[in-house]
Amino acid sequence: MRIKLKVWRQAGPDQPGRLETHEVEDVNPDMSFLEMLDVLNEKLMLEGKEPIAFDHDCREGICGTCGVMIDGQAHGPNRNSPTCQLRMRSYKDGDTILAEPFRAKAFPVLKDLVVDRSSFDRLQQSGGYVSVNTGNAPDANAIPVPQKIAEHAMSNAACIGCGACVAACKNASAALFVGAKVSHLSFLPQGKGERHERVLNMVAKMDEEGFGACTNTSECQAACPAGISVQAIAKMNREYMAASLLAEE
Amino acid sequence: MATVNENIATGSSIDARVPEGAMHEKWETRIKQMKLVNPANKRKFEIIVVGTGLAGASASAALGELGYHVKTFCINDSPRRAHSIAAQGGINAAKNYPNDGDSVWRLFYDTVKGGDYRSRESNVYRLAQVSNKIIDHCVALGVPFAREYGGTLTNRSFGGAQVSRTFYARGQTGQQLLLGAYAAMNRQIQTGKVETFPKREMMDLIVVDGVARGVIMRNLVTGEFETHLGDAVCLCTGGYGNVYYLSTNAKNCNVTAAWRCHKRGAYFANPCYTQIHPTCIPASGSYQSKLTLMSESLRNDGRIWVPKAKGDKRPANQIPEDERDYYLEERYPSFGNLVPRDVASRAAKERCDAGYGVGATGQAVYLDFRDAIERDGKQTVAAKYGNLFQMYEEITAEDPYQVPMRIYPAVHYTMGGLWVDYDLQSTVPGLFVLGEANFSDHGANRLGASALMQGLSDGYFVIPYTIGNHLASSKLEKVTEDHPACKEAMVEARNKIESLINVNGSKTVDSFHRRLGAIMWDYCGMARTAEGLQTASERIRELREEFWNDVKVLGSGADFNQNLEHAGRVADFLEFAELFAHDALHREESCGGHFREEHQTPEGEAKRDDENFKYVAAWEFKGVGEQETLHKEELDFVECKPSTRSYK
């Protein structure tokens, strides 16, 4: 099939950007969206034009590297699926697709469709861990974790850190991302010791990095490729409330 | 065929510096022998860690905790995106929680046997010994492993083992273990002990007076070159499976850092040992950019079969039970669908080559959950494999609850890598190599759930000891950026980038990579012959020349340029591929992932030659396109006497 692609081109962080239109022929329905970009890039290069820069790595939906706004939706039209898993069979012959980078103050554009998400790393560094040194842990079965609790922790730990939640949010809030991390660790006995500090530090860091506030519209949940529930945000808010009250005492 | 090996320049044999004593005491003995670094002095040492997968992230965290100053580099935008994140199935440990007869010795034995007696016993034994600590530590870090109702950890079984020793976190074990190590590293970043440098590619190793003292990095966002100096370098850069173009590796996985270290004196060991994983989603078209693996854990409940009749094109569900050939269960009654990866892969290829393959291309076999769903119910199956089923459906548009999955083998993990001694030190002192980037633990085949174990064992539990010994026992003079060795490495790195841009030819980088991949798959893939490997060597050489005459790299080296990154990696793959083919040609036997058609039993099974090839082939670089010198490390099997590997 034939697809018309309108794609954001921006040479560098301080350069102006613009939309460019390309026709891609012979698009196979089994191709992924990224493979369609590969095909287009091959064509551009043979014409002596610079290929479109886009982020990708594992192409298996787990590394969280890829991520584009497709027709205004983070990772495109399919729910709970990253860009690399979007197949061209979701489109039909003659469709026009608009591809833009994730937009958020905390995610500056580096080039074309590539954004800088290092703010996510800094959020994690501000408290998303359990302070334990290597080599001294007790036997893994010494502290039982009920299956249900372990499953809840896992559901939140499944976050791939792609940033779609931020891109989908009108306020560019990182609440779902931080909520997932806070929930994961506060469910587990291992993470309980530092739970108050963790949530206070991570929430403060969100503001510092320029993420907006959460207004509970749940767009983040709809866009999340890992299917993280907005309950994570509620959990974060509860943890934050408890921690703030205790901090005042 | 002796002529091949007669023509090889053979250097001195190499000593792995394995401690004396009984197998179970070696690691303890080594720890006792090691010199320690005074805690107050640790902060004066700078350690460079390249790569942030399981090995790199765990090493960075553990070394930071000890008080060293660590500089950590990765090619991705975040350390969390290293390809370890894609591992699905699990991690082994000898906990024997299920009480089914497991022990450190049995995990060790299974791993050595699974590796077809081509790994180093002492390293594997240590791996089995520390495996239990890995689980303890990961749980303490908050890794949400699967649990029983009572709250204890649960296990499943994997290929090559008859006990349940694999710990897992749904189908995302690699992700959870990596995020655990990344979190541990983040804690050290917060304290200032670890400094991170994402979006950096290692261009060269700086060797001063024969000792590794630093690296040249290229900032992939700005294009700038940087010199980073330190007292030791840990290379944790993963495997080279992408030399095949199509593989299950992430697109950015490459051999560049390891290859550049090789060119600076680090021997490359057993490059021809490549694991072809049996449970991959088959390729569907020529645009295909990579292959997707389905976790091997699926073989616990999925039954593998093809139609008994050649060319039977009926839909799977219309083929009656007695017309199905469950060939693994037939051929290997005691291991059945859980035979090791090399055995399962070859059997699938054999059936497809014989005309029994299924699907549009005929290059696939069925992995069927019908019986498991009937036996345990859809919900139970979904709880175990739900995300994998969903992923399969997204890619193929087929529902595996209704119709069997189609699978075919694909290049997955590379068991070869830079040669290291027992301390994980390469032939360049001060250069340590961890995880998939080294060669030591998996022999000619890797059993399931052992890669995650090795990455974390090396990073959390081996390198913190052995690097201390190196630092405490070496006299390391201060080196500055104006040292001639630094300048030379910098000039070479810059020249390489410029020369790529200056070719200004007519063919894209990707087209060269695809052509290289096709040569590798056709001649150095699941089955190899002397003739094919010679052809491969010639074609790789021609392709390399063509690349340097006709590749087209757009843009400049002075900014963010993904095409240029790819070009540099393909240039190195082209040099490396020739060594790969050569290693495969010289190894006149079949073992693990290396199957030479000339060396098979009448039943078509791999036939090892322990008399002539019971060694590690460690190659010394002699110049691009020049024949490398072969150094042998003889392998002693004291505990596990080599026997014919049988899974019948």
From TrEMBL, chain B:
Tell me where in this chain the Fumarate reductase/succinate dehydrogenase flavoprotein-like C-terminal domain is found. Answer: 513-647
Membrane topology summary = Peripheral membrane protein
Q: Which organism is it from?
A: Stratiformator vulcanicus
GO terms in the biological process aspect are: anaerobic respiration
Spell out the family assignment given in the record's similarity comment: Belongs to the FAD-dependent oxidoreductase 2 family. FRD/SDH subfamily.
Q: Where are the transmembrane segments?
A: none
GO terms (molecular function) for this protein are:
electron transfer activity; flavin adenine dinucleotide binding; succinate dehydrogenase (quinone) activity
EC number(s) for this protein? 1.3.5.1
Q: What range(s) does the FAD-dependent oxidoreductase 2 FAD-binding domain occupy? A: 47-452
Entry annotated with the keyword Ribonucleoprotein: no
Cofactors required: FAD
KW Secreted (keyword) present: no
Major localization class: membrane
- What compartments host this protein? Cell membrane
Q: What keywords appear on the UniProt entry?
A: Cell membrane, Electron transport, FAD, Flavoprotein, Membrane, Oxidoreductase, Transport
- Look up the signal peptide feature and give its range: none
Q: What is this protein called?
A: succinate dehydrogenase
Q: What is the catalytic activity of this protein?
A: a quinone + succinate = fumarate + a quinol
GO annotation, cellular component aspect = plasma membrane
InterPro entries named in the record? FAD-dep_OxRdtase_2_FAD-bd, FAD/NAD-bd_sf, Fum_R/Succ_DH_flav-like_C_sf, Fum_Rdtase/Succ_DH_flav-like_C, SdhA/FrdA/AprA, Succ_DH/Fum_Rdt_flav_su, Succ_DH/fumarate_Rdtase_cat_sf
